[in-house]
Amino acid sequence: MKPWTVLPWIGGLPCAKYATQGNKVFYDDERTSGTPAELAFSKQVANYMVSIHSVPPGNVANPYAGDSREMVTSIMYDTSGKYTTSERYAAAAEQGQQDYSYLSNLFASVPKDSDHRKMYQGILDYYDALSPVETSVYPGGYREQTEAYLKQQDTLFGVLSKQDAANIAQAMSTAFNENSVSSSPSLLTFNEPISRRLIKITSQSPTASNTDA
């Protein structure tokens, strides 16, 4: 799956156009005016986009790697025309990579039994740190449903210790507030938006999941 299909809401440069025009699509999207620094950055973004669409993908680093999540999120949702489509996509890719780093560590910490308290608490902490525009893609009542599942787990296994809850909150705070350099040059780990992945994870109760297991 090509990266453009991961974030269709950004618009512009659809896969069909890339399929017929190839890398020219990204070079044509470069800025044609601005400061020397802005033009140079735009060129870096174009090279990054070409790299991640190559088969196999290249190793060009995302120019936004290491920037704060707040910054890249504001760019990816900016529809004012201040940023090129490629710049918005690159910002979205960096945001997704940072989120993936946090969530993959969270899921890796979940014990291979029926105790999913840390997972649900971590998802709630993640959701609560999102901006309103980001939470808008989740179905109504998503937080309430996830919280209800956590309470079911609390009934079975007891409430998380203050230390465990603090550790999860600290990991979330670090992920959202500190610069995080991506370990990968591209967002190819998820073939779907992270929001959709989380919705799937919390689409059925812990009891149903345990029964299926």
Count of folded domains:
1
Structural class: mainly alpha
What percentage of the residues does DSSP assign to strands (E)?
under 5%
Radius of gyration, CA atoms, in whole angstroms:
19 Å
What does the largest sheet look like? none
Shape: elongated
Number of strands: 0
Q: What is the average per-residue confidence, as pLDDT, rounded to a whole number?
A: 80
Order of helices and strands: HHHHHHHHHHH
- The tally of helices reads 11
End-to-end distance: 29 Å
Helix content: 55-70%
Unreliable sequence segments: 1-6, 180-191, 209-213
Notes on the structure:
The chain is an all-alpha fold and 213 residues long. The protein has one domain. It is built from eleven helices and no strands. Helix 5 packs antiparallel against helix 9. The N terminus and C terminus are likely disordered.
Short descriptors:
mainly alpha, single chain, 59% helix, elongated, 11 helices, 213 residues
Question: How are the secondary structure elements laid out?
Answer:
Elements: H1 15-21, H2 24-28, H3 36-53, H4 69-76, H5 85-108, H6 117-128, H7 132-135, H8 142-157, H9 162-177, H10 194-201, H11 206-212
Helix pairs in contact: 4-5, 5-9, 6-8, 6-9
